[in-house]
């Protein structure tokens, strides 16, 4: 007669169970014995050996669409790690969590990472997105180029050293011979405020983060020029991924395959989101859309923000960085007047 397992309390065959012991106690012993047997056969649990990557992210950030897709489809486990999302109320808190060791990864642009690295922090950058902003105007605006914004009011998200604003200023100087900062009135504010004031026609044009711009275009506003177009005209590579995952070298020393594993999981999620419309349905609620036009525009622009696969081209990055140094100065780049070595992780 076969046994499922043994215990101190019930070591008899499954049938018949001894009358002197209650049936429920014997059943419990069988279950416990079975668990012990399976554990002994399987050895240490796989989960105990799987490194965990704790990601500090903005609670409402668009990066959650990719991270959710990674976890939902098991792309993290397929590449040998477990991704855990830690949501925070603002980007500053995510960076504090990374610095303090409460998280292993945060999201930032590599200009910020370069500044931190020059200040002595061991941060490295894993590419994530090349999605950037642009300038939009009301659909009935007569403006056809940046030259038509002279004397107009522009709402700008991100502040005076926002990268999109700096690129557009450089483009205006090159193409039209004037500085937007000197010839326009600027209103700086948080992205939701710039979104609202633009839709209410309180500004003549707006520069906003890509996902707010997508909703603005879905609401009828017209793109005057994209940062991609301006970058190309300036001789910059528009495919440079500006946003990325930031990890510490000390963490990568303990988990040497993590940069590549995270990158490959990210690429798997991007491929799925690029090719399968159905993969977007689980994300609909967190995309916070009001109508189908917004949903479709966000999906389209997210896909357009996918950078080419592979490592960041450091020569292209250095060209871009020199422009940021010239226009943004120490307010933007701190003491990092040259691109720090080791900034970009090897992901191939």
Spatial shape: globular
- Alpha carbon gyration radius: 26 Å
Q: Which strand order does the major sheet show? A: 7-6-8-5-9
Number of continuous helical runs: 16
The low-pLDDT segments are 1-46
Distance between the termini: 56 Å
| CATH classification class of the largest domain | Alpha Beta
Could you explain the architecture of this structure?
The structure is a single chain. With 348 residues, this protein is an alpha/beta fold. Helix content is 46%, strand content 16%. The N terminus is likely disordered.
Brief summary:
With 348 residues, the protein is of the alpha/beta class. It has three domains: 1-43, no CATH class; 49-130 and 241-289 and 306-316, Periplasmic binding protein-like II (D-Maltodextrin-Binding Protein, domain 2, 3-Layer(aba) Sandwich), CATH 3.40.190; 134-233, D-Maltodextrin-Binding Protein, domain 2 (3-Layer(aba) Sandwich), CATH 3.40.190.10.
């Amino acid at each position: 007669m076969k046994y499922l397992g043994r215990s101190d309390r019930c070591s008899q065959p499954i049938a018949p169970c001894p009358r002197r012991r209650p049936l429920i106690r014997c059943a419990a012993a069988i279950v416990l014995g079975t668990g012990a047997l399976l554990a002994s056969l399987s050895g240490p649990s796989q989960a105990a050996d799987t490194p965990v990557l704790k990601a500090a992210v903005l609670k409402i950030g668009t990066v959650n669409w990719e991270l959710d897709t990674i976890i939902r489809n098991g792309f993290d486990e397929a590449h040998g790690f477990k991704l855990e999302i830690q949501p925070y109320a603002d980007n500053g808190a995510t960076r504090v969590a990374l610095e303090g060791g409460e998280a292993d990864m945060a999201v930032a642009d590599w200009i910020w990472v370069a500044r931190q690295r020059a200040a002595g922090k061991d941060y490295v950058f894993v590419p994530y997105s090349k999605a950037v902003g642009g300038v939009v105007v009301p659909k009935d605006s007569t403006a056809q180029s940046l030259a038509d914004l002279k004397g107009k009011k522009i709402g700008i998200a991100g502040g005076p050293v926002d990268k999109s604003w700096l690129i557009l200023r450089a483009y205006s100087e090159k193409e039209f011979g004037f500085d937007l900062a000197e010839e326009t009135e600027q209103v700086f504010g948080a992205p939701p405020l710039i979104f609202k004031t633009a839709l209410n026609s309180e500004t003549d044009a707006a520069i906003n983060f890509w996902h707010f711009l997508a909703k603005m275009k879905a609401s009828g506003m017209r793109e005057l020029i994209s940062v991609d177009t301006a970058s190309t005209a300036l001789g910059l590579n528009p495919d440079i991924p500006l946003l990325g995952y930031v990890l510490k070298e000390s963490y990568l020393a303990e988990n040497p395959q993590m940069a590549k594993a995270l990158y490959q999981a990210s690429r798997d999620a991007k491929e799925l989101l690029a090719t399968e419309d159905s993969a977007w349905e689980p994300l609909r609620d967190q995309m916070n859309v009001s109508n189908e036009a917004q949903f479709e525009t966000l999906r389209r622009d997210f896909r357009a923000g996918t950078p080419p696969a592979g490592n960041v081209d450091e020569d292209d990055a250095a060209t871009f960085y020199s422009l940021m140094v010239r226009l943004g100065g120490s307010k933007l780049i701190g003491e990092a007047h040259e691109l720090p070595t080791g900034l970009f992780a090897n992901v191939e």
